[in-house]
Amino acid sequence: MFWNLPYIAVVILSVIGLATILLKRNLIKIFFGVSILTSAVNLFIIALGYREGGIAPIYTYAVSENMVMATPQALTLTSIVIGVATTALMLSFAVVIYRMYGTVNVDEIRELKE
Amino acid sequence: MVSATSLTSGFGIWDPVLWVLAIIIGLVIAWILWSSGVSAFKKGTEQARPYLSGNAEPPKGEVHIRAGNLYWGFTEGIKGYYQRIVPLHTGIMTDYLLWMFWVAGILLIIVMVV
Amino acid sequence: MIPGYITTNAPALLIAVPLLGAFLSPLIGRISRDTRALWVLAVMTLTTLIGYLTAFLVYTEGTLIYVFGASEASLAIPPDSGGIPIRIIFTLDAMSALMVTIAVTVGFAVILYSLTSDARRSGLEAYYTIFLLMIGAVLGMVSTGDLFNFFVFLEISSLASAGLVAYKVENGRAVEAGLKYLLVSTIGGIFFLFAIGILYGQYNALNMAMLADMIQWTPLDKLALVLVVAALAAKCGAVPMHFWTPDAYSMAPSAVTAMLVVASQASLYGLFRICFTLYGITLNYVTIGWVIIILGILSMIIGVTMAIPQKDIKRLMAYHAVSQTGYMLLGVGVGLAVLGDQALLNSYGMTAMEGGIFHIFNHAMYKGLLFLTAGAIIYQVGTSDLNRMGGLGHRMKWTMIFFIIGALAIAGIPPFNGFASKFLIYESVFAFSPILSVIAMVVSILTLASFVKVFHSVFMGPPLPGNEQVREAPHTMLIGMTILAAIVIISGIFPEFFVQNLITPAAHALTDQAGYISAVLGGA
Question: Are residues B108 and B68 in the same domain?
């Protein structure tokens, strides 16, 4: 049970993220939701990568049976970088939209429709 | 006849080269018929002017039927359909995401149950 | 004639050249605008040549493997890894080669077009960087054999595309469209990453061939498939997740829109790749096939009916892009629905898939052409509102001819290429389920109807007052359109040549899961 804690946290974070995206009307808060959702996925992958008693494969003379492949860590690192780029781009879009429309309420950002 | 240029679907064949040849022959016949006619058309005379039941011709800009007026009958005829479909395109970005979650949810139910 | 180190490293160069060119272009752009234009054109030409070379190698020599960082490019499994392919791998089979061909052809045409059409804008140093980045990302998506690598390229293409969509600003409307596209893509990306995590947690592999070898169809696999299908269907603009498509397509610069079509199709490729190669026969192919067919039918009907009342030329065409994506989903979906039944697959399943895949090729060409003509019209008239256009046929004769070619091709009128692929779809889908075929034909008629509307309101009629200064589009724009128009005509008149040499191998590559696995894992 205890070792499922990270996965329970993933579910809770995902629900918080989804709820924030769908229920909040402020663009910036929606971006929070997206970030929380990204964090949930990152936590999920990092939790998958944990092996009890494993050794990081960075020592040449380590005991080779207990080495853990660092793929999940590499994936998470990449995903974090992508997340940063996405958040930055979304925030910069929000800046332009606020300047042009004078609002960050998603219900009013709908010049393009139908 | 199956030639090198024809496309077979397993049920039928489609040969664009023959089709183009047929069109060209048709055009040649049409041109022969047309050129054997009598030319009574004179440019720059009363013949070249449009005849609108004896009314004066309106300015050129007003003769053109603009895009917004085309297919009015079609959209009017299936108004019930358009009244349901068009408002779905709300232009609100959280609605776009909500649709994605709906589709994922429904798909999950379908895939898990069937 | 071609040095050996180029042919061996062609898959790597395919990504390296546009990426390197992208990040050098701001630097080179500091010299002068013309130097930058020349540089971008040179990079794109080189990419195109490498793309054709790669595709040629794949079609002549079979599936191409390129492992990054290995002592030998074809060494998929390192000898000391215990049978696990750990390195990033590019696996190019015939389907990937077809997508590479499409991407470089359209990419070359739009870059050529864009050098003139966007020359008047500011911020060009970033524009071409992002554009080349987007082309590189699309090429990466279609050639990678690693699930996580696919995700990375998917995200690069989303970020680059969103930046390009928002590039014109247009009082904030373009930025709004870019933000919508980015949000949908990001959520799609998160779905995809979740699916990767689920698969990795079960099978300890990211390599598609390795995963395909081990995949089971457990409940977790089902969840992963659902997430992937939802994410990639949203990215390729299938109804009911198509709402971003008209917004993004109509607000992007026209050259970008033509490339966005290809980017969407790269997502479509990912969808097919994962359904066919990764899951293959293990998934419940009838259910998933029908899911894809239903998405396709909905896309066709709703796309075309929403297109008819549109008043913005690019928005109208964008809804048609949704509708045409439906044909591809329909054709390949029928192939998926009969995947496990070899008799039915031989009888009509393969033909349906060939039709769907040929439609991907054709759609990229004629839709690109149509968006480029729309761009030329907007460039000259200064508005995208159909109500304010009229009588342009008097002055823009070449644009009009190209528009007619594109419009007839999209409506499936012989002898253009749209008919050839729709012919394959109609005949084979009729054998599967006649009603679907009838729907496809009705949608084609409605497509023709709405393009008659565009043709009439843009080109026909007397020259309108206010359009006196309109003249023909500049030559480089016309050359870009000519390339695509020539392909539309040639592939329409000699469809069998294209189907036999490009499409059939691609369709077989998709269905041949064992071939894909053994190409990477060496018959293990």
Answer: yes
In a domain, C499, yes or no: no
- Nearest one of A58, B106, B14 to C493, comparing CA atoms: B14
| pLDDT tens, residue by residue, C52-96 | 999 999 999 888 899 888 777 777 777 766 677 788 899 999 999
A&C contacts, CB < 8 Å: 95
Which chain C residue has its CA at the smallest distance from B64's CA? Answer: C461
Q: Cβ distance B67 to C454 under 8 Å?
A: yes
What is the rounded distance in angstroms from the CA atom of residue A53 to the CA atom of residue A50? 9
Q: Do B91 and A110 touch (CB under 8 A)?
A: yes
C287-308 pLDDT per residue, tens: 999 999 999 999 999 999 999 9
A103 touches chain B (CB under 8 A): no
Pull the structure tokens for residue A80.
Answer: 């974090």
Number of domains making up chain B: 2
Nearest CA in chain B to A30: B94
Between chains, do B86 and A21 touch, taking CB under 8 Å as contact? Answer: no
Q: Break chain A into its structural domains and give their ranges.
A: 2-51+63-101
Whose CA is closest to C100, among C152, C164, C57?
A: C57
Q: Do C201 and A48 touch (CB under 8 A)?
A: yes
Q: Which fold has domain A2-51+63-101?
A: Helix Hairpins (1.10.287)
Which of B3, B7, B49 to mutate to probe the C interface, most C CBs <10 Å?
B7
Domain extent, residue C446, equals: 288-493
How would DSSP label each residue in B41-88?
--TTSGGGS--BTTBPPPPHHHHSPPGGGTTHHHHHHTHHHHHHHGGG
Q: Which domain holds residue B101?
A: 54-113
Alpha-carbon distance C486 to nearest alpha carbon in chain A (angstroms): 34
In this prediction, the answer to ipTM > 0.90 reads: yes
**Does residue B47 fall inside a structural domain?**
no
Is residue B48 in a domain?
no
Could you tell me if residue C431 is inside a domain? yes
- A111 with C187: Cβ contact below 8 A: no
Closest to B67 (Cβ–Cβ): which among C234, C453, C494? C453
| Domain-located, residue B42 | no
Any domain includes C59: no
| pTM for the full predicted model | 0.94
How many other β-carbons are positioned within 10 Å of the β-carbon of residue B35? 8
